[in-house]
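Page 42, continued from yesterday. The earlier attempt failed because a stray header line got pasted into the input along with the sequence. Redoing it now with the clean sequence only.
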Amino acid sequence: MARFDEVEVNGSPMRIFLASPEGGGPHPAVVVMCHIGGLDEFTADRVDRLAAAGYVAAAPDVFHYHEWIEDNAARRASLRDRSIIDDIESCIAHIEKVEQVDEKRIGILGHCMGGRTAMLGAGNISRIGPLMIYYGGRTMLSWGGDGPTPFERIANIKGPVVGFFGLDDTEPSPEDVDKIEAEFKRHRVACEFHRYQGAGHAFQNFMSPERYREAAANDSWEKTLQFLGKAFG
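This time it went through. C-alpha cells are written below.
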C-alpha cells in the first residue's frame, strides 16, 4: 500500500505517494507524475501496481504550491514548468534517501497532464532513463513561460520511450502524436508508440467510466511492464 511522505520544495511542503516492493534492494524506481486529479485513487493504484511489479514508485504532488483549486482548468493553469522540475528532482532525492533505490535505474511515467510533465522531467533531468507517456497533451506549450517546452527538450532525453494514445483523443490529437513521434525519431531517441481504436483521452482511468476502455487499459499496462523490464534489464 502506498504511504504519504512529505518533503519541502522551495519552501512549500510537498506530499509524495510512495510504495516499495517486498524484499531487499536496491530496486529500480519509477516517478509517477499525477494527472489532473492529483494524488487520487487512480494515482495510488498506479504506484501500488508498480511496487507489486518490483519497482520503488513515487508520485509527487505538483499542486502543493497553492490551496487545492476545484476547477480543472484553473488548477492546471497554476502550474509552472520550473517548479515541476524542482518537484521531480526533490522526489528522486527523497526516495534515494529513504528507500533502497538503484540510482542508475530511474524511470518516469505519467498520464494525461502527467504524460506531459513526465516528458518535461525526462528532457531536463539527465539521470532519468525510461519514459512512459500516456496520452500527454500540451507538450508544445510552456507552462509559465520560463523555459523550453517538453517538445523542445526531446533531444535531451536519455532513455527509451513508450507512448500510449487513443485515436479518438483531441488533446493530443492523432496528428499531434504523429508529430511527437517523428521528433523522437529525428533525434534518434528509441521510441515505440501504441495507438488504440475506439479509445479517447484518459482511457486507462477507471475513475472516469465514460472514458475508461478496459481492453486498451489492460493492454497498455501490460506493455508498460514489458517495456520497463526490458529497459531496466
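Notes: The mean pLDDT is 97.
Reminder to self: strip header lines before submitting.
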